[in-house]
Specification:
The protein is mainly alpha-helical and 106 residues long. The protein has seven helices and no strands.
Amino acid sequence: MRSPILFVHVRACTCGIVRAMNGTELKERRAVLGFTQARLAEVLDVKPNTVARWERGILTVPHTVALAMATVEREHGGAPKAEASAARATPTKRATKRAAKNGGKV
């Protein structure tokens, strides 16, 4: 179980340093790093379902994760924005199959 005193201290320390992050922003930052949900979960030491729930907005992204993401980005050096958007422009296998089923519409 997490110590309430430690949690309050961490929350107080990160609130002034790091702004809150929503699931959409977490997903975008993960994509820029080129990480899968599973890889990000491994780096943050959480379960992959937790990352998926943060990104979908089912769970609130903790302030500590925003702080950890800043550290991960420094260590792994995020890809430039142009490369990230180019990578997202490539359709996935699933999107390609869906487009074939729907007569070319993605």
